[in-house]
Amino acid sequence: MIRTIDVIHYAYKQAPWRIQRQWISAFLLVVLGLSMIAALYLDVTARAALTGRDIQNLSANIIAIQQSNADLETNIAMLTSYDAMEKRALAMNYQPAQSNQVQFIVVPGYIAPQPASLISAPSLQPSAPTIRPEYTQSLLDWFDQRLHTPVSISMMGVSQ
Amino acid sequence: MREQYAWRSLALAGVLAFVGLSIILQIVHIQTSPEAAIFREQAAQYAETIQTFYPERGEIYDRDGHLLAGNKTVYEIGVNLKSVKDEHAIALAVGVELGLNPDNLYSLMANPPGNLTYLILANYVDADKALALQQLKINADLQAAAGEQSSLSGLEFTPHPQRTYPEGALASNVIGFVSHEGRGYFGIEEKYNDLLAGAPIQVKVPVDPNQAADIPQVPNGTTLILTLNRDLQAATEQILDDSLTKYGAQGGTIVIMDPRNGEILAMASTPRMDLNQFWNYASIYHNASEYNLAVSTPYEPGSVLKILTMAGALDNNTVTPATTFLDTGSILIGGVTIMNWNNQAWGLQDMEGCIQNSLNVCMAWVSSQMGAQSFYEYMNRFGLGHPTSIDLADEAAGRLKTPGDTDWSPSDLGTNAFGQGVATTPIQIMMAASAIANNGRMVTPHVLYAMVRNGRQFNVPAQYAGSPISVHTAQTMNQMLATSIKNEASLASVPNYSIAGKTGTAQIPIEGGYDPVKTNASFIGWGPTDDPRFMIYVWLESPSASIWGSETAAPVFAQVAQKTILMLNIPPDKIREQIAAQH
User: Fold this and answer.
1) pLDDT range class, residue A60, cuts 50, 70, 90
2) Fewer Cβ in 10 A, N or C end of chain A?
3) What phi, psi does B470 have (nearest 5°)?
4) Contact at 8 Å (CB) between B223 and B527?
5) CB-CB neighbors (< 8 A) of B565 in chain A
6) Alpha-carbon separation of residue B225 from B17, B393, B459 (angstroms)
7) pTM of the full structure
8) d(CA B34, CA B30)
9) Which of B142, B164, B186 is the C-terminal boundary of a domain?
10) Plot region of B459 (φ>0 → left; ψ -120 to 50 → alpha; else → beta)
11) What is the rounded distance in angstroms from the CA atom of residue B371 to the CA atom of residue A23?
12) Does B72 contact A74 at a Cβ distance shorter than 8 Å?
């Protein structure tokens, strides 16, 4: 009776090579998963590093361009300085006007020149908040954000 | 056979597992070993560098947007001694391009002071010279054999901003200058140094590019717009320089102010210097007060101060324009005999005559009639003896002795009335006189028109310094001074324009008395009298052509006034009346 039970047990037990293959497959699956995560991590990290380096280069470029602008502005100011303009005017046979050479005419609607206003269109100030979160947050941060961000549903009303 | 392979596989797996486990154990061991903490500490040191970010110094513009002070890029040229291959080549290249002695450069590199690894060979080098030298280095690098250092390796170029003044010496006495260390001296540069310079920020900058977002953005210094009119400033300086030559004066100053709001339109003073060569300061000026005579040098102004005495006396009803005084040529005040400028008696005079003929005796009588308490109260109200609070560095307060001071004597009441024995700066007299020109309201003179920061412009409102006299007194005094200029056919007159003003000829105090020969010639005036747009102060130091202000300072005033009228587009009185009639 006991022998009969053993025979039945072995008859239904998986073959050892099959168990071995299952273990190897499971192990390879884990290795593959870890490799994929590692590859993803490396890819994201490398891209973040490259972007970071780009930001540093762009910051340096901004400083260089600002210096260049200041140089150009100074050059323009030197070319249009009082002395330079006076020399150019005299070279073109202009003369300083005298009181008796000036005539005042009433011009309706004339508005006298106002002092300078140096305000230009507001420019974007490059700063840390302009860097997208994709470049700064970790995978865990991203998961956390996705889990805690409330789902927004847009409602479109229909009127009749 | 199958069992044999199984054993081999197991053995191989065991070995690999052992190796793997050993590696993991070693990793854990390294991470937790005592040396790991040292390595981590070293890594932390190199993970970030401490850098100081200096904001770009704010620019300075005139009221029409002309740049008066800006920034340009200059270079520091140095050598990294660890990378140097050929000192001779570097010394020769730098010496030739920058005009320096190659032998000195070579000996500096060959014998560096201390254990320095980086040497500065030249600083504040103009961009064109530095870039020419940089091109030489690039060429040398290209010619060098692959994998070898070039003859100019080790040469390094570091750009940085430097203050520059496109107009050179123009308005130098107002603007001031910035030293190589970045500190402002004199004028606007010193007064607004903190605003212009901005706040330097010292931060830890991470080496890790992932942390690039932490690099701070340093806001630049505030840009300033001045009330100065560049073209009027240049014309005023030209007139001042010509006047010194014409009248043989030792120095002088001319200030133009809008009496309605205290805006300084031009402020010329001698001597001036090219601000791009500020290191010449010590050879041009003997002391700081010479930098801007208009605000830093008090002097006895003489008869220009009579307008304040008369305004005070009219305001407290001591006199009226019709009050008469019999001028006998002298008056005794506090034991001191006071004489007129020509030592003559002028007979019966009304107050208009006293002002028009600039009679010391009459003015001393007026102040004595007011009494010391009332007289000095008015002088205090006019701001004498106190700084005006003009926004320029090194303003002097002047000196007004008052009863109770140890060096005050009763005779001062008489002499102060005509501007002797009292020390004021030109800007103080202008502020005081603005009350007369501006219907009793005194303005605080200022040079700053607006500030620009973060894309916003903040205009500076006019500041008023009280009302020392009533509207009626101001209008009466204004009329008296205009009539005075008209009646005496003064050299200060400007055709087709009504001008109010007063000359001043003052003796110069020396040790033990007054200089018997030299005088200070002054004139203060404004116009048009019914709607003053400009107030001009002229001070010529010790003119040799004539000692009298009426013959030196007055015509200079007229010249400046004509130029001002042209540049500010002020129509003649008749045209203005026509315009007013149309409205």
Assistant:
1) confident
2) C
3) -80, 165
4) no
5) 99
6) 76, 17, 9
7) 0.82
8) 8
9) B164
10) beta
11) 117
12) yes
Instruction: Please report the residues numbered 85 through 104 in chain A whose beta carbons come closer than 8 angstroms to any beta carbon of chain B.
Output: 86, 97, 99, 102, 104
Whether pLDDT at B295 is above 60: yes
* Confidence label for A150 from pLDDT (cuts 50, 70 and 90): low
To the nearest 10 degrees (0 to 180), the angle between helices B553-567 and B230-247 is: 160
CATH code of the domain in which B357 resides: 3.40.710.10
Domain boundary among B164, B193, B217: B164
Q: In angstroms, rounded to a whole number, what is the distance separating the alpha carbons of residues B372 and B366?
A: 11
Instruction: Give the A window 28-47 contacts with B, CB below 8 Å.
Output: 45
What are the pLDDT digits (tens) for B558-575?
999 999 999 999 999 988
- Min Cα distance A113 → chain B (Å) is 9
Q: Do B452 and A119 touch (CB under 8 A)?
A: yes
pLDDT at B462: 92
Q: Is residue B446 part of a domain?
A: yes
* Distance of residue B4 Cα from the nearest chain A Cα, in angstroms: 15
pLDDT greater at residue B42 or residue B214: B42
Mean pLDDT of chain B: 91
Pairing of strands B48-53, B201-206: antiparallel
Interface size between A and B, measured as CB pairs under 8 A: 123
Pairwise CA distance, residues B141 & B135, whole Å:
10
Give the ipTM of the model, two decimals please: 0.80
Number of domains in chain B: 2
CA distance B297 to B289: 6
Mean pLDDT value across residues A83-107: 89
What dihedral angle (degrees, nearest 10) is formed by the CA atoms of A76, A79, A83, A84?
Answer: -150
